[in-house]
Amino acid sequence: MAVIQLVLLALIGLGAGSLAAALGTGGGIIFVPVLAVLFAFDQHVAQGTSLAVILPTAIVGTIGHARAGRVRWPVAIPLAIAGVVGGVIGARIALTLDDSLLRRLFAVFLIVMAARMAWRTVALVRMRGSSD
Question: Among the residues of 24-98, which ranges form H helices?
Fold first, then answer.
């Protein structure tokens, strides 16, 4: 792997890790598109690589938020356990899907989540604005 590519990957990792910890995204919404679009990874490899990268990023981000008292452990622990089971199921499903279909499903997921977040943000701003 070329030095320039390693430097670029390190910069992307730095940016994605910072955004993941700051915004609570887990990094996948950044890593997967970057690996698939900028580095031409197929969707399965982009998702698998992203998941491998997210683990240390999530651990470090969790430590920072936990130190600030911003983690609800009674909620996080059962979610984590269920997430592990869901991860096994999701990986099995993803590996059965065609790369093109998986890429489209991921894109639809991002669009739906972005639209939902935008809708809720607008509603929250309107609600706060009406209470002033």
Answer: 28-33, 43-67, 73-96
CA–CA distance, 50 with 71 (Å, rounded to integer): 23
- Contact of 30 with 15, CB cutoff 8 Å: yes
The one-letter amino acid code at 120 reads R
Average pLDDT over residues 72-94: 94
Q: Which two tokens stand for residue 91?
A: 């990986």
Alpha-carbon gap, residue 35 to 42, rounded angstroms:
8
Gap between the Cα atoms of 87 and 65, Å rounded: 23
* Domain residue limits, the chain: 3-130
pLDDT of residue 127 exceeding 80, the answer is yes
- CA neighbours within 13 Å on the CB side: how many for 57? 25
Q: Using CA of residue 80, residue 85, residue 91, residue 94, what is the dihedral sign?
A: negative
Which candidate, 84, 95, 25, places its Cα nearest to that of 54?
25
- pTM to 2 decimal places: 0.77
The residue type found at 41 is: F
Long-range (24+ apart) CB contacts under 8 A made by 110-115 are 110/29, 110/33, 113/29
